[in-house]
Design goal:
ADP-ribosylation fold; 3-stranded antiparallel beta sheet
Length: 122
């Protein structure tokens, strides 16, 4: 398996922190009760959206910044990647168990959410 770029959605209120520090493990979760020791990512933006952002929007979770930012992550040989087991050939979730420095994270864009956009992603 060869993963070059992964995608991660985060609340837009975290934009300045991510551009200053990169993506960090153990951050305040959006949908869970405790922080994860990894960064959740996917091989494409749509699948990444369905991991967390779609569910948060469906349940009306209030976000700092009011929207979601999509980040592209350049995978390095030194990253500790764990692919979540799935049925079938598609990869949905890749857990990155280390921080991703700023120079390997690119801001792709922002999605402001109104209504129920989760259905558009499924």
């Amino acid at each position: 398996m060869h993963l070059l770029t992964l995608y991660h959605w985060s609340p837009s209120g975290r934009y300045h922190s991510i551009t200053a520090l990169g993506l960090l493990t153990g951050q305040e979760p959006v949908m869970c009760s405790q922080p994860y020791p990894y960064i959740c990512a996917s091989p494409d933006p749509r699948t990444a959206w369905n991991l967390c952002a779609a569910l948060a929007d469906e349940f009306g979770v209030e976000l700092p910044g009011g929207g979601w930012d999509l980040w592209a992550i350049a995978v390095a040989d030194s990253d500790e990647l764990h692919v979540r087991p799935e049925f079938g050939p598609a990869i949905a979730e890749v857990q990155i168990r280390n921080a991703i420095p700023v120079h390997r994270v690119w801001w792709v864009g922002r999605r402001h959410v109104t209504g129920s956009p989760a259905g558009l992603c499924r």
